[in-house]
Design a protein that fits this description.
- By secondary structure, the protein is an alpha/beta fold.
- The protein has two domains: 87 residues, Rossmann fold; 36 residues, no CATH class.
- The protein is 33% helix and 11% strand.
- The protein is built from four helices and three strands, in the order βααβαβα.
- Strands 1-2-3 form a three-stranded parallel sheet, covered by helices on one side.
- Helix 3 links the parallel strand 2 and strand 3.
- About 4% of the residues have low confidence.
């Protein structure tokens, strides 16, 4: 069996999406996030099969302790975790394995419409 390395974002993927704005005390906000229990259970099954799970997040490294506590509390399986993920409107990566034609179409769109994002287009 081929062992895969699977990257999983934390916020709005392992945690339930919330519309609340993060207050000044964002660490309290992180503590109160609800888990996506069904998805976390699937990750447990994937990890049992020997695949490598690498979590990534745009949370800062100083939030490591509170993040690890939340992951342990909700029994989220992982092998590695990466903090300080850079935020971009679009990721272009030579190792992206899905949606190649869609990605190329989107890149071409961006090249032709330099001043607008597709979601900002007037109808």
């Amino acid at each position: 069996m081929v062992k895969l390395t699977i990257g999983v974002d934390i916020d709005d993927t392992l945690t339930q999406r919330t519309r609340k704005k993060i207050s000044e005390n964002y660490r309290e906000y992180y503590k109160r996030l609800y888990p996506m229990s069904n998805f976390i259970e699937k990750l447990r099954q994937i990890k049992k099969r020997g695949h490598i799970i690498c979590l990534f997040t745009s949370r800062r490294l100083e939030d490591r302790e509170i993040t690890i506590r939340w992951l342990r509390k909700h029994k989220v399986p992982y092998n590695h975790i990466i903090f300080d993920k850079p935020l971009f409107d679009l990721y272009i990566d030579n190792d992206a394995q899905t949606g190649t034609e869609v990605d190329l179409a989107f890149i071409n769109y961006l090249c032709e419409n330099k001043n607008k994002k597709p979601w900002e287009e007037e109808s």
